[in-house]
Amino acid sequence: MFTRRRMLLAGAAALGAAGTAGLIVAGSDEEGARIAAHAPAPVPGPQARQAPLKSSAFRLQPLTGGAPPHSAPRKLKVRTEPIFRIPEHGRQMMLTFDDGPNPDYTPHILDTLAKHGVRAMFFLCGECVEVNPHLVARMAEDGHVVGNHTWTHPLLTTLDRSEIKSEMERTSHIIEKFYGDLPQWFRAPYGAWNKATFQLGAEMGMEPMAWTIDTTDWDTPGTDVIIDRVESGAAPGVVILSHDAGGDRSQTVEAIQEWLPYLLDSGYHLTVPNRRV
């Protein structure tokens, strides 16, 4: 669907987002640090050995019909850069998946995450949500956090403000319908950000989230390459970028079955942001 994924990541290059380790949380004001904060650091040991997750204590039930009028988002401070890392509370990392949901690959990734008791972030495209609402409902039930990744995955820096707003707003509304809550995070396709994306995201109650490590799975480099990028780049505070749609993601499905237990056995805790209320 997204052959344009191979386009030059002009916006990402300008911000140094793709595959760049060692960055800090952008705009690290007190409010931003609080929003990006996570649960207290766990005791050492694989997360898979913790008690089973209880989604009912974490997430609203998804709305599958007869949704009420759209919720009014809480407006946020406008940032000038996205967030590249999470606070380093112990050996915490965050897993993120872009472009889905996809019926061929997303269920396998969700199965692997469930097997190991891990939550992740999924940045969803509205057009994919529209045809796969059951997968969004499952994300809600499993306690995953979903974010807005626009409706059609365009290069936002080539659009005018009204077009960008439409891409973001439509996606937030359909996510609310099937996930049960408005998304509180936004990721620009290709990592291409501009002033309008930051302003509109803040108006819609969404913080801008980038990444620290790009697995390059969008380029189908081979399962071993993906595994090596994750395992060699693992470090406290790292945000990993993978994809569950946008092309053949069979390598991603295979790779996560290897690198996820490796991270857990290495004592890493895979976390997601706290929900703002």
Automatic annotation (TrEMBL):
Residues 91-271 form the NodB homology domain. Coiled coil: none annotated. It comes from the Bacteria. It holds the Pfam family Polysacc_deac_1. Keywords: Hydrolase, Metal-binding, Signal. Residues 1-26 form the signal peptide. Gene3D superfamilies: Glycoside hydrolase/deacetylase (3.20.20.370). The keyword Transcription does not apply. PANTHER family: CHITIN DEACETYLASE 1-RELATED (PTHR10587:SF133), GLYCOSYL TRANSFERASE-RELATED (PTHR10587). This is Polysaccharide deacetylase family protein.
